[in-house]
Design brief:
By secondary structure, the protein is an alpha/beta fold. It has helices at 8-19, 31-41, 78-90, 110-113, 115-131, 177-180, 195-204, 207-217, 236-245, 258-270, and strands at 24-30, 45-54, 70-75, 94-99, 138-139, 143-147, 150-155, 158-163, 185-190, 227-230, 251-254. Helix 1 crosses helix 2.
């Protein structure tokens, strides 16, 4: 299969085959990441936890056929809470934990804001799942790398827990990782094909990217002139501009979100920029 026809589930499947775990717990956020995974590789998942659900690609039609235990964690306020409650009812074995007096839209920093609450909810859930006999494969070695376009970092040793990207959360899973590694082998995933970065890269390949190119066609950037992009997201426009200008101009790309900016840096390095 070429990279153009690999879905996010295909990529994660290739990664897990390479790393070795046959059964894993998955903790995710965006339906574009976990929806395809439960449909294509549901037997690999001992459990699924969805934190602050971002239903960017809707809910799989046959989600009720996914029979592994599922947990949804959400704030108790506003539209995000309603979507989460509706989502729980779609799972065959769904549970709901609501964080009191909290709203969890796509940009909420849920793990940093409610670290203890989320840690306790996930830990209690995983313990109950494993008591029922759904045991993940143990992870025994740390490391990092990239397989099938998915970057990974492994922390700790023990039953495998895969953390897929949160949406726009600036801290992502970082406050939770040290707590989970006391009991689990934690595999943190990222890169251009998962989470919000995937959406931003897709946008750059769409009409949005064409519009930016047309604007640049009408902008006469002088040789050596400095270019600033504010709100660069995944850095797709800055990378395109760097290629367009052939290294003749300093380009500064910045974003308020440290997670997105770190991913943009990694993608730029991947392209030799």
């Amino acid at each position: 299969m070429t990279s153009k026809i690999l879905s996010s589930a295909d990529r994660v499947e290739i990664l897990l085959r390479h790393l070795g775990p046959e059964r894993v717990h998955v903790v995710a956020c965006m339906s574009g990441d976990w929806g395809d995974l439960v449909t294509k590789s549901g037997d690999r998942l001992c459990s699924l936890t969805v934190v602050a659900p971002h239903l960017n690609k809707g809910v799989p039609d046959r989600l009720h056929a996914f029979t592994s235990p599922s947990l949804v964690i959400t704030g108790d306020q506003g539209a995000p809470a309603k979507r989460a409650r509706d989502l729980v009812g779609r799972f065959g074995r769904g549970e709901l934990v609501e964080l009191r007096n909290y709203s969890s839209p796509a940009w909420a920093d849920t793990i940093a804001d409610r670290t203890a609450d989320v840690t306790n909810a996930i830990s209690d859930f995983l313990v109950r799942v494993e008591r029922e006999g759904a045991l993940p494969t143990a992870v025994t070695a740390n490391g990092e790398g990239e397989i099938a376009g998915v970057r990974y970092r492994i922390h700790g040793q023990g039953p495998a827990v895969v953390l897929m990207p949160l949406s726009l959360a600036p801290s992502q899973w970082e406050p939770l990782v040290p707590r989970l590694t006391n009991y689990y082998g934690v595999i943190v995933l990222g890169g251009a094909h998962l989470g919000i970065i995937s959406l931003l890269e897709e946008r750059a390949r769409s009409g949005y990217g064409e519009l930016v190119a047309q604007v640049l066609d009408r902008t006469e950037v002088a040789l050596g002139e400095r270019v600033l992009e504010v709100g660069c997201g995944s850095g797709a426009v800055a990378r395109a501009l760097a290629n367009r200008l052939g290294g003749a101009n300093p380009i500064i790309a910045t974003d308020i979100n440290p997670y997105i900016l770190s991913e943009a840096r990694a993608l730029a390095r991947d392209k030799g920029l």
